[in-house]
Design goal:
- This protein is mainly alpha-helical.
- It has helices at residues 3-19, 22-46, 62-86, 88-95, 99-103, 109-139, 142-176, 180-196, 207-218, 223-231, 238-262; strands at residues 52-54, 57-59.
- A two-stranded antiparallel sheet has the order 1-2.
- The chain contains eleven helices and two strands, in the order ααββααααααααα.
- It has one domain (3-262).
- Helix 1 crosses helix 6, helix 6 (109-139) packs antiparallel against helix 7 (142-176) and helix 7 packs parallel to helix 11 (238-262).
- The chain is globular, with a radius of gyration of 20 Å.
Length: 269
Amino acid sequence: MSFWQASRRVFDLSLGEMLWSRRTIFMALVVGGPVLLAVIVKVVELFGMSALRVNGQRVAGFGVFGVMIWMLFLRFIVPVLGVFYGTALMADEVEDKTITYLFTRPIPRGAVLVGKYLAYLACTGLVVLPSVMIVYFLLVPPAAIAGSFVALVTDLGLLGLGLAVYGAVFAFVGAYFKRPLVIGLLFAFGWEQVVLALPGYLKQFTIAFYLQSLVPHAMPSDGVASILQGMFRESPPIGVALAWLLAYLVVFLYMATRVVERKEYVLEQ
């Protein structure tokens, strides 16, 4: 069996397990937060009040949706899902002592991780996408849907890219370290948050720096875009940000597969 055939088999096996796992319940609760907030914003606007103001300017419709994509999905939900799912791709198999059954099959070891990684992307996409679409239709007026469709597709692309990159990084963490969840949480909500708030060049070694630099380009061409642009002290060009994110994805996913292929996993008694 070739590498990609084996990855597809592992994907088929892992997707069902992920969709019916306790982590999916947790993920549904996490992505339900923005939906609840969107309902509150909609109710407030029905009473003629402004739910969100930035620098004294009223933000409504797709602008509120864009802010939620940036502040809730990209800065919190995507890293959380990457940590809890990515670190568990191999760590759960070791903890449950089921990794032996996978490694005794006549397939490449690296295909096990790649197949589970693809299942992670499908699983998170199937849960996050409905949440994003519900928030979108709650906040964006019907008359503005046609004009904001391209921006919506861009936002969905950013979410997918963020899930892919964070998943690859934390897949490596889960494959290499013995207690990966703690390390993943420290990286996503310790290192990245602290470095982004500090001046200097260290923020260029974070995923969040390049993801959030793409957000203003996905905003509608009104006051919201300029407001969000002002929130970023540094914003690399689109090509540079995409190149760095793709480099993170490819390098860490390759390193994760190499670790799985070479590491001897010792099961605790």
